[in-house]
Give the backbone structure.
Amino acid sequence: MKVIDQINNSSQTLFSFELLPPLKGHNIAGIYKTIDPLMEFNPSFINVTYHQQEVIYKKHPSGLLEKKTIRKRPGTVAISAAIKYKYPSVEVVPHLICGGFSKEDTEYALFDFHYLGIQNMLGLRGDPPKSLRTFVPEKDGHTFASGLVRQITNMNKGIFLDEDLENTFRTDFCVGVAGYPEKHIESPNMASDLHYLKEKIDAGAEYIITQMFFDNQKYFDFVRLCREEGITVPIIPGLKPITTKKDITILPQVFNIDIPDTLVRRVQACTSNEEAFEAGIEWAIAQSRELIDYGVPVLHYFTVGISENIRRIAEAVFNPSK
Ligand SMILES: Cc1cc2nc3c(=O)[nH]c(=O)nc-3n(C[C@H](O)[C@H](O)[C@H](O)COP(=O)(O)OP(=O)(O)OC[C@H]3O[C@@H](n4cnc5c(N)ncnc54)[C@H](O)[C@@H]3O)c2cc1C
């Protein structure tokens, strides 16, 4: 079922989570190991991230540096199909990005999704590779996620890149997009970011999943600003529990987010990563409970390949009687 239909058909907050494909050379078994302990909480959908290729410098024994282009986490499409068929009760939501894709590549990826019976996807621009400061689209690729969303929803209308095709089929994709309660890092201000978020919705996106945040007030304010902007689609909060002590310095740098002072002090007082892991679970449980009371459609957790914390949060939040 499409994510939007799941939301519309439910009167309760749903549970979902995001997975990263395994590092190149590692087995899909790790994916199942993350999913299995979370299945008892009836996830509605599982997202699978997409990682474009990046440039690395490999040092040879001679001291020479070799420039190499690699994809560290390939396999999004195949992993999505594997999840879909191994866990038939759960919808899979592969991420599709603009980076590294020409429009034609995108069209072929959409054919693959359609042939595999995958109906849901999250349409994103993608981050610039670590070696670059700014995002550079592929030749004849999309510069912004709105263009990608439009291409996906065009296919739903039977519109393909090749205008000469006749008697084309229509897909029935449901596409979500990313939103940033604390503003996207490249955006000059919130008003501009909201304007372009609206453009993605006008292009046919049916829901928003937010970047992680640690202060629910940021989410509540974001929802209000979106509604004032005329964005009416469901806004799914994305949550990432703190797992190590250094998260409080790394996450703000990487994701352009603030961490509330109470949480910073709580994590700083931890004497080990194990304690910080526990503090992260406690904080996420409190955040989740407040978000459920507010009436969020779905709680979406970024697992980063760790399920123990998400299992304990889900147990407290979705299965409190156990
Ligand atoms: C839930 C979630 C999941 C994610 N999953 C992945 C993933 O799997 N793989 C990955 O690589 N990255 C992922 N990301 C990161 C995301 O790709 C980056 O944050 C990226 O930098 C922006 O992507 P976007 O789709 O929000 O871009 P866009 O919506 O295109 O916006 C990018 C920036 O451009 C601005 N903008 C948009 N349209 C215009 C326009 N027409 N003119 C001028 N400015 C404009 C926006 O305000 C914003 O600042 C994810 C992010 C989130 C929140």
Residues 245 and 273 are 6 Å apart (CA to CA). The chain has a mean pLDDT of 95. The pocket of flavin-adenine dinucleotide is lined by residues 49-50, 95, 97, 124-127, 144-146, 178, 184, 186-187, 192-193, 196, 200, 209, 211, 238 (CB under 6 Å). Residues 273-294 form the longest helix (22 residues).
